[in-house]
Design brief:
It is built from 8 helices and 11 strands. By secondary structure, it is α+β, with helices and mostly antiparallel strands. It has a single domain (about 35-305), classed as 2-Layer Sandwich (Alpha-Beta Plaits), CATH 3.30.70.20. The strands form 5 sheets. The protein has a 3-stranded mixed beta sheet with strand order 8-1-11. Helix 1 (about 5-30) runs antiparallel to helix 8. The longest helix is centred in the last third of the chain and has 35 residues, at about 305-340.
Length: about 350
């Protein structure tokens, strides 16, 4: 099959237009509503004991086939991050290409005084992807490697589509997506709520193996209602906290601690499917106070919407450059042949 210059130029220009039109239609189709079967996690830092069972079991579950950490060339290996001194236990310092979920501690070593009056003197916080209702990472991905499931709302990643632009890393207001810099064929790495376990009748490993009920899995609407119930409780009350699943039968009775009167993730960044309760101000737990209720794709779209048109323009420019170069080379070869003949 051959293609002439005119057809190729038409194809190149048309590609840019189609990419641009496709991106615009994708933006227009986005909806801010909670998906009908949206699932997520409620994390209550007042119940967390920092055992890190969630971290370890997250790595184990996601190192299985279908998991976010699974690679064929490292099948069967769990990517623990050990300290330099020993290889006894997993000790990541932050989210990374090997760590999808992390527990961090906040406390005042010198005085053990509360961070703010009336608040706890120490707290744990568990960080992983928040699965935004309007995820900026999905909005900026030019090849749809990141997508939000229309039913469950889980933000998933397809490594076979990704070409490594890392726009998602720049766009995410929470700094969640990580990149496998050390691999020859790298991928973006993030929590996908263990969606590969659902076919087995299981759910997110961090909730499945949480012994205290600090992390519970369920429908987002049920989690929102549970969070509201807890905020209505008084410190010193005894409450039967759900363990593992918000709709499960397993409960644990505990004395209610003091809560900050806020559900983080209910509105931040347009709303998320990972919700937080805490006894410490959220800005003291590492959350960026500059994150508002603004939907983040609104910030990024003005810039990213020009990317498809830019790709089309580069295709045209590259084609023209190639054709001009070929013509100049042909003229030079003809001139050289003329000189040889004379």
């Amino acid at each position: 099959m051959t293609i002439n210059r005119r057809d190729f130029l038409k194809f190149s220009a048309g590609t840019g237009l189609m990419l641009s039109a496709g991106a615009e239609s994708a933006r227009a189709a986005k909806t801010p509503e909670l998906p009908p079967e949206a699932v997520g996690i409620l994390y209550d830092s007042t119940l967390c004991i920092g055992c890190m069972s969630c971290m370890v079991n997250c790595k184990k579950a996601n190192s299985e086939p279908g998991g976010a950490l699974f690679h064929k060339n490292t099948a069967g290996k769990i990517p623990f991050e050990y300290t330099e001194e020993d290889h006894i236990y997993d000790a990541p310092e932050s989210l990374s290409a090997k760590t999808l979920c992390i527990i961090k501690a906040l406390y005042n070593e010198e005085t053990a005084a509360p961070v703010n009056p009336g608040e706890q003197s120490k707290s744990f916080i568990k960080m992983h992807c928040l699965h935004c209702l309007e995820p900026a990472c999905v909005a900026v991905c030019p090849v749809a490697a990141l997508q939000k499931n229309p039913e469950t709302g889980i933000v998933t990643y397809n490594k076979n589509r990704c070409f490594g632009c890392r726009y998602c890393q720049v766009a995410c207001p929470f700094g969640i997506p990580m990149y496998e810099w050390e691999k020859a064929s790298p991928s973006v790495v993030k929590c996908q709520l263990c969606n590969h376990l659902y076919a087995q009748g299981r759910y997110s490993a961090c909730c499945e193996f949480c012994p205290t009920g600090a992390s519970i899995f369920g429908k987002v609407k049920d989690l929102q209602a549970e969070a509201q119930r807890r905020l209505a409780l008084k410190p010193g009350d005894v409450y039967a906290y759900p363990v593992k699943r918000v709709d499960g039968d397993e409960r644990t009775e505990k004395v209610v601690d003091t809560y900050v009167n806020h559900i983080y993730g209910l509105n931040e960044a347009g709303g998320t499917q990972y919700l937080f309760l805490a006894g410490v101000s959220f800005d003291k737990l590492g959350f960026n106070p500059r994150i508002t209720d603004q939907v983040y794709p609104d910030f990024t779209w003005d810039y990213v919407s020009h990317v498809p048109a830019l790709i089309g323009a580069l295709l045209v420019a590259g084609t023209v450059t190639r054709l001009v170069t070929q013509r100049l080379d042909k003229k030079k070869n003809d001139a050289d042949q003329g000189d040889d003949a004379s």
